[in-house]
Amino acid sequence: STGHIPSMFAVILRTKARIVRINEFEPVELTCIIHFASTYNLRIEWKKIRNGIPSYVYYRRKIVGDLENRAQLREPASMLIFNATRTDTAEYRCEVAYNDGSGEFDEIKINLEVRVKPVEPQCSVPKAVTVGMAAELQCLENEGFPAPVYRWFRNNEELPQDPKNSPKFINATYTMNTSTGSLKFHRVRKEDAGEYHCQAKNDAGHAHCPANLMEVHDVDILAIILKSVGGVIAALFVISSIWCFASRVYASKKARNENE
């Protein structure tokens, strides 16, 4: 016999995991197990689908595309990626069929998620605010995948996401958005002064920015009064200057009329 495989010999594939999560630069194996098939005259292909667009990564018995030199096929059909990068996050499809034209075929889809550790976030902390005024602290990190969760610390003590759930912070007026990194004080208190830093964290790791001091000043009543008095004095000075100028003009005009 030339080895023609009857179509009744179906191809059935299995995998150890349809969803695989690893950290960046780690090795990973995408398992495509030929559960049922003759090993004779099989065609094995792997495709990578990103944003709905497929591309070959194993074709005609060799690794191609962006995995070239970074992966190998483990017999009979699994694929090992030596050092996965963030660009390898995608859906992978293992396709196995007979080469005899019988049409017997099966495929396995595996979703690979390559997690990326956050880098040092960019933090914005006001240097000084006045008691009773509003203030906003901001934290932003763009590298981590999946998107990190943000936490804020004051003097190395973590602030609760909702201050009303903590007896120590129950009088605080801030709201924290752990998705955007925003920490908003609606009315700053003296107790809110301190060194603030933010942490960005996901499943791959975490990073934080250096601590920045936020000072809280009392309302300076004397300065407000002096400023108000200064404004009144300035206004009186302008008025008196206009009056003096008008008086001189009037006197000069009157003297001219008398001479005439």
Automatic annotation (TrEMBL):
UniProt keyword Transmembrane helix present: yes
Pfam families according to UniProt: Ig_3
Listed PROSITE patterns: IG_LIKE
Superkingdom of source: Eukaryota
Domain Ig-like: 6-111, 121-214
Swiss-Prot/TrEMBL keywords: Cell junction, Cell membrane, Disulfide bond, Immunoglobulin domain, Membrane, Signal, Tight junction, Transmembrane, Transmembrane helix
Subcellular localization, as worded in the UniProt entry: Cell junction, Tight junction; Cell membrane
Alphabetized SUPFAM superfamilies for the sequence: Immunoglobulin (SSF48726)
Transmembrane segments: 221-246
Gene Ontology CC: one annotated term: plasma membrane
Membrane topology reported for the UniProt record: Single-pass type I membrane protein
PANTHER family, alphabetized: JUNCTIONAL ADHESION MOLECULE 3A, JUNCTIONAL ADHESION MOLECULE C
Family per record: Belongs to the immunoglobulin superfamily.
Descriptive protein name: Junctional adhesion molecule 3
Source species of the chain: Hippocampus comes
